[in-house]
Amino acid sequence: MNKISTAVCAAGVTLWLTATASFPAHDRAAQVLAAARQAYGRANWNTLGLLVETGAEHASGLDGQWRLAEDTASGRRHLTADFSVFRAAEVWDGHDHWRQDASGGVHALNSVFMRGNAATQMWLARRDFLRPGAGGARIDDLGARQDDHKTYDVLRATPRGGQAAELWFDTASGLLARSIWEMPIDDVTVRYEDYRRVGDALVPFKTATQEGDSEPDIVTVARAAFVAHAPNGEFAPPQTPDDSTVDGGKATVPMAVDGFITIAAKLNGKGPFSFILDTGGHDILSPEAAAALGLHGQGAGTAGGSGAGTLTEQYTRVDRLEIGGVSLRDQSFVILPLQYDTVEMGAKPPLAGILGLELFERFAMELNYGANTLTFRPLKNAPPGRGVPVPISFSDDQPIFTAKIDGIAGDNGLDTGNGNALVVQGRWAQRVGLAPRMRKGLPTAGFGSGGISQNWAVRADVEVAGRRFARIVASYSQDKKGAFSSRTEAGNIGNQIYRNFTLGFDYRRGTVWFDPLPGPPLAPEPYSRAGIGVYKKTADAFTVAIVLPGAPAAEAGIAAGDDIVSVDGVAARQLSGADMRHILRRPPGAKLTLDVVHGGQKRPVTLILRELLP
After folding, report:
1. What share of the chain is helix, strand, coil (3-state, %, to 5)?
2. CB atoms within 10 A of CB 225
């Protein structure tokens, strides 16, 4: 996730709190709010009109211009950030929350969770603490806390239909000093400083927004004023720029599917380069691809994915992106040093990066896994897809939809960047009672932009668009950070399931169509029959990440950290990660000869593969 998106969302939350008549005099929460009302000195906020603030934002090593327009009566908000190399915006129009990403593409943040988040954001913008009963919100006293050598009185506010937020008041001043928001992956903390008078209202002129453990994004307000009326269109949904074309109104290009989906594209007339097509990923270039194009990055942000780690990211712009008869102009790209294991292709040139959200925001796209083709149509005049229509929504940048895992319905990520079948989210499994069984699975490992993700291989049933896939090999994740540590999603479903369909994406309609391919379902891949998980750190070897006790690899003395430098006489340099995945899943009884380096010494190892996951 690009953390500037969260910063743009949260940095402009300007709060004023007061006591309300709904609390008894002896209630400590009422006392805290009474002190806040006295500190802020004004109760009648909903008559002040539109608060417009402008200033500067420092985020991800970039300095940009920042603006917030906030209607204190309705709670509508319009937040923009312009860093020159890219621009972003968020709009709460009173009903929906819209995000305009760095490329100018637009989608709604409209999952159940994010609707609750928007309700709380607008509740705060309306200053509903000023109303009798706090606008129907529940207020809980969390007690006094010490931090930064200060004492804070902490309340939890849960507006009707909204998400809870912690509100930290400075005991000495009575002013709000901090709010903490629980988001699907990381908590977001906003600190409020440098309060100044705007008319007879107190407004914080500095905010620091921190997502998880990342560096905080700093907003410094230069000017703030109340105006009587909002300009026309102030709270209208952002519009995607007219920056794309499809020759003849329809273009079909080949795609390759081997775990990941890959497609070919030209950038600034050079290439073609191969890219992963990822529904949840932004447009990304590897540093090597950026150098080949003569592009230079700006900034120093961080990005994460599966696994707990993060990667340093920079930003650049590409004049022209071409995919067959599809053309996009003046596109924002992130330069991201993806792990070698993600981009390597064995003897073929490495992948140049990822293409994703920005395409799906602009085009109706059909992924035909049977014909291995990808078809583009302009969103504005695309016909409905074929098959079973399934609604999608967004908590961030990846579509989510309802599917069943072991008969239990939940929100699942629709992730073409997942080359496997299913990752079951640990927090959800714990809530619905599946965790004890899944913890009995076999240890395995996944590899993504956040590094290695330790998990378990388990059998599970999954039902997608009315089609059931029984006893597939799924991964159960108990990650504490990264994409597979979600508080809100049940799982993440990947291409091993989708290859049984033609998928029709239409973000304008908020729908993906699942059209089953003829014939019996294709079985997802089995668990490694050698009992090892490997990845590539360099071209010349597969590094062993995990060894299953009692499996063929363990019996042959292979240990985690060993390097496999050849397989059946073929040098590792000539094999991709996808090649090795297929080799380790050959039928039971197959013989496998490896050259393994342990402690600097190379030795031959022979394995007889067998079924390991019952």
Report:
1. 15, 45, 35
2. 13
Token pair listed for 177:
């000093």
In the chain, CATH 2.50.20 sits at: 3-227
CATH number 3.40.718.10 given to 532-608: no
Where, residue-wise, is CATH 2.40.70.10 in the chain? Answer: 243-525
Beta strand pairing status for 467-477 and 422-425?
A: parallel
Tell me the two tokens of residue 146: 């010490």
Q: Looking at the chain, which residues constitute the CATH 2.30.42.10 domain(s)?
A: 532-608
Rounded to 5 degrees, φ, ψ at 29 are -60, -40
The mean per-residue pLDDT over the stretch 359-371 comes to 97
Mean pLDDT of 230-252: 95
165, burial (CB in 10 Å: exposed 0-12, middle 13-18, buried 19+): buried
DSSP 282: P
The one-character DSSP state at 524 is P
Q: Cα(184)–Cα(484) distance, rounded to whole angstroms?
A: 10
Q: Return the amino acid letter for 53.
A: E
Nearest-angstrom CA–CA distance, 298 and 511? 36
Question: Residue 239, class by beta-carbon neighbours within 10 Å (0-12 exposed, 13-18 middle, 19+ buried)?
Answer: exposed
Gap between the Cα atoms of 52 and 226, Å rounded: 6
Helix (H, G, I), strand (E, B) or coil at 370: coil
Contact predicate 18/37, CB 8 Å: yes
pLDDT at 111: 96
pTM of the model: 0.91
> Residue 222 is encoded by which pair of tokens?
């230069």
Determine whether 467 is exposed, middle or buried from the number of CB atoms within 10 Å of its CB (0-12, 13-18, 19+): middle
State residue 27's pLDDT score: 86
The CATH class, in words, for 243-525 is mainly beta
The helix/strand/coil state of 242 is coil
Given a contact cutoff of 8 angstroms between Cβ atoms, the answer to whether 229 and 73 are in contact is no
Residues β-bridged to residue 209: 190, 217
pLDDT over 60 at 120, yes or no = yes
% of the chain with per-residue pLDDT over 70: 92
The CATH code of the domain at 3-227 is 2.50.20
The DSSP result for 5-63, as a single string, is HHHHHHTT--------TTS-TT-HHHHHHHHHHHHH----GGGS-EEEEEEEEEETTEE
